[in-house]
Write a structure and sequence with these properties.
alpha/beta, 2 domains, seven-stranded mixed β-sheet, binds zinc ion
């Protein structure tokens, strides 16, 4: 069998791997929007089936394109299927603005018709293979994928997080000793601060800013982070007005139908009901008239209401970034160079800003723990900026580990 890395090879974005054996199986098919090369490489063959590990754009955004010349069966958890519809619609709008149309509504419709919903820990037989999904933490519905095919077992970690958060369950480990592990490497170079400490610091910054009459802006990914921030803010401040602007509200409403995939669901529902959605652009000005909290997309400040609020807020206000920001995005530039770009102009916001590492990804320790626990025969380190270093370190521990290059094929 052959494993070809069509994306997320020493980069974060456009995750896509093709396993070619008796069955042709694709793991994820995502986009890397806002870059010169947003698409995964063309697969050498159409997949028979494709597994969507979770709904984030970099894993789900290019799935409709598979229906341009093929008709694979797509497998995902129910929340992932529902959330990816929202993400794909949004990415079609973004691509349209770039003047690109890598797929159209009819491909998108066929994707919906071809999706099989699979819940965690259920065996699913397809072709000559079996697929099992395990909870990956990370965001609601995210899965680690376990595939048995051609007498071998492959584990694809997707994005995962070992420890639970206020909205996600801890990740589960698939059975030990797979032949191949494909593992994300996003934070292979560092551990995250303790969540309890982060929440204390978050509460301090929130109180300080509200106390001086400012507004706290929380740029947030629509899926996962928006819902978690609703819970975190409400857990440290019972009274402040929380507004939710952008795609995060629609995602929250969608997720509220999947109670079994959300940790502490009743508390989530309660906290969500205490927030106010912003439905019209014209309401944004009214919101900022008195101190409040605004949770707004996009998480990396690449446009959306988050960027528009940031540019309007005064020096008494603060933006707290809490998620991973890809290089050259506004979020990354704000954190590292103190500016954002709007209409091609570099602007230093009047509001102050900070970064608190509330990551939805496994830290270094959890990544090593997964590899050691599973003890695979071969490890492929992908989805990260330090994949080669991670592979080198795993080799020193005795694992057969490599960091694949884009387009590279391996006999497995
Ligand atoms: Zn993700
Ligand atoms: Zn990812």
């Amino acid at each position: 069998m052959e494993l070809t890395f069509l994306g997320a090879a020493s980069e974060v974005g456009r995750s896509c791997v093709l396993l070619s054996g008796e069955d042709k199986i694709m793991f994820d098919c995502g986009l890397k929007i806002h870059t010169e090369e947003p698409y995964p490489l063309q697969p050498p063959a159409n997949p028979d089936f494709a597994i969507m590990s979770h709904a984030h754009l970099d894993h789900s955004g290019f799935f409709p394109s598979l229906f341009k010349s093929g008709s694979p069966e797509v497998i995902s958890t129910p929340p992932t299927a529902a959330l990816s519809e929202i993400i794909i619609e949004d990415s079609m709008r973004l691509m349209d603005r770039r003047g690109e149309h890598p797929y159209n509504q009819s491909h998108n419709k066929r994707l919906k018709q071809s999706t099989t919903l699979l819940s965690f820990k259920k065996w699913y037989e397809i072709g000559e293979s079996t697929v099992t999904l395990y909870s990956a933490g990370h965001i609601p519905g995210a899965s680690m994928v376990d595939v048995e095919t051609g007498g071998k077992r492959f584990v694809y970690s997707g994005d995962f997080k070992g420890e639970p958060t206020k909205t996600t369950f801890p990740s589960e480990y698939p059975p030990e000793n797979p032949d191949v592990l494909m593992i994300e490497s996003t934070y292979s170079d560092r551990d995250h601060p303790k969540r309890k400490d982060l929440e204390i610091e978050f509460a301090r910054q929130l109180d300080e800013t509200l106390g001086q009459g400012g507004t706290v802006l929380l740029p947030a990914f629509a899926i996962g982070r928006t819902q978690e921030l609703m819970r975190i803010v409400r857990s440290v401040n019972k009274d402040v007005d929380i507004y939710v602007d952008g795609m995060g509200w629609r995602v929250s409403e969608t997720l509220s139908h999947f109670s079994s995939y959300i940790n502490e669901f009743k508390k989530f529902r309660h906290d969500m009901d205490s927030c106010t959605p912003i439905m019209r652009k014209s309401d944004r000005g009214k919101v900022m008239r008195k101190p409040c909290v605004i949770i707004a997309t996009a998480g990396m400040l690449q446009g959306g209401p988050a960027l528009s609020y940031l540019l309007q807020l005064g020096p008494e206000s603060k933006a707290i970034c809490t998620g991973y920001c890809v290089e050259d995005t506004n979020g990354h530039n704000l954190i590292n160079k103190n500016y954002v770009e709007y209409d091609g102009v570099k602007i230093k916001p009047k509001a102050s800003w900070s970064y608190l590492d509330f990551s939805a990804h496994a830290g270094r320790k959890e990544l090593f723990e997964l590899v050691e626990h599973l003890s695979p025969k071969k490890v492929f380190c992908m989805h990260g900026d330090s994949c080669q270093k991670f592979a080198d370190e795993l080799q020193l521990e005795g694992f057969d580990a490599v960091a694949p290059k884009l387009g590279e094929t391996f006999e497995v």
